[in-house]
Amino acid sequence: MDLGIQDKVAIVTGSARGLGAATARRLAEEGAKVVVTDVLAEQAEATAEALRAAGLTARAVIADITKAAEVQRLVDETVEAFGGVHILVNNAGFPRDKYLVKMSEEDWDLVIQVMLKGAFLATKAVMPHMIEQGWGRVINISSRAHLGNPTQANYSAAKAGLIGMAKALAIEEGRYGVTVNCIAPGFMETEMVQALPTYEAIKERAVQMQPIKRVGQPADIANAVAFLASERAGFITGEVLHVTGGRYG
């Protein structure tokens, strides 16, 4: 299926590794020109280089998406390199899990700033370009955790916030040919998750609770992003696509 994103320009935040790296690769395989951006400089450069080695079009721009000036530089460099920006995937984020009574203010602030403020700054920076060209796709990577998880008040709040923001912007920006959607992954087998000391126990519990009895892979999310970024999804906006193997609770 031709997704219609050949030569479109995509920024994927938090794409040095994991879901973001898989998403960057999938979009590049569909012909998009991809900007890999992260604070992990060496890994971001390596991810972009691996895409180029595969004959795909990519570059790395190192930026802290919690800082407005760095986000604007990211967008400016993208436009200078590739001539525009059409697709934004707000993927950057990480957990700082603790029960509320043990959660520090720093634990709360870091998670909210990277996931929610970062998505706000990145979307605000790309939106003028999308409005001017009359075409755009913003895809927020939320989580099944938007429904609530113990020890994840900060993470769940940020992921739920991404959904609220997407629904508001879908109404606000639709008149300009810009769609805004969310993907809510379930349990995914990424390097970050595999490094957790409780990985095996979390994996076993997740699979038990899913109708589809396998672990989610980064490619599952990357494929969903590619669809929502495509011409085929041009009449879909303000939606949340759960990629969870059927698990909601």
Automatic annotation (TrEMBL):
This protein is called 3-oxoacyl-ACP reductase FabG
Question: Which controlled-vocabulary keywords does the entry list?
Answer: Oxidoreductase
One annotated GO molecular function? 3-oxoacyl-[acyl-carrier-protein] reductase (NADPH) activity
What EC number is given for this enzyme?
A: 1.1.1.100
Q: Which family does it belong to?
A: Belongs to the short-chain dehydrogenases/reductases (SDR) family.
Q: What class of enzyme is it?
A: oxidoreductase
- Which PANTHER family does UniProt cross-reference here? 3-OXOACYL-(ACYL-CARRIER-PROTEIN) REDUCTASE, 3-OXOACYL-[ACYL-CARRIER-PROTEIN] REDUCTASE FABG
Which species? Answer: Ralstonia soli
